[in-house]
Amino acid sequence: MNADSRPDETDRVRERYARRASHDARYSLLNPAALAALQERQRALLRLFAGLGWSELSGLDLVEVGSGSGGNLLDFLRFGFAPERLAGIELLADRHAVARRALPESLRLMNGNALELLPALAPADIVFQATVFSSLLDDDFQQRLAEAMWAAVKPGGGILWYDFTVDNPRNPDVRGVPLSRVRALFPQGRLQARRLTLAPPLARAAMRLHPGLYTVFNTLPFLRTHLLCWIAKD
Predict the structure, then answer these.
(1) What are phi and psi for residue 87, nearest 5 degrees?
(2) Structural domain tally of the chain?
(3) To which H or E segment does residue 77 belong?
(4) pLDDT tens for residues 39-59?
(5) Is the pTM of this model over 0.70?
(6) How do residues 148-175 score in pLDDT, each as one tens digit?
(7) The domain spanning residue 22 has which CATH number?
(8) Whole-angstrom distance, CA of residue 186 vs CA of residue 195
């Protein structure tokens, strides 16, 4: 096979998602551990926005890269973002279709490669990604996507990042993105980060014993597997 006929990283991402179960009960919000992790992240996002001095979110433009079935965009609507100032890009057509049914028509959704589509949605105050980069195993593609995201951010805005930092030995289709890699992807940004999200296997085991144990174990930073970052653009 010559180089031109090899699948690119977007094709490989489609293949990786095709290998995953269409519905995994571990990530359903009917699972108490998944719900606890989501609520923790929602609180952390709102604290971050308040810390940036944003008392009114409806005037901000936000683009999500890898918007999936629209769950994160629904959260942003609940937080107070205006639908006409939200946008999402999703590579997978089936997930894009689910999001389109769930979200207001005034919220702009695009199906395709973010490298090609981001310029049409720029400039934005916030470009957001959640667990996209951990599904990208090609370093060059990661770097090009990071550069496209950075180019789409207005001065004074930033990259909003949520992703896990450790490899999953049971899933070769993902890899952790440590803080050092985040810094390397956005060398011009001013980065603030906090660890978040109790390790999911531990969270599920703890919640089976008692719901309060999620909070107890999550007080230990080394048991948290994800980073929430704000990467500011001057």
Answers:
(1) -150, 155
(2) 1
(3) helix 71-79
(4) 999 999 999 999 999 999 999
(5) yes
(6) 999 999 999 999 999 999 998 888 889 9
(7) 3.40.50.150
(8) 18
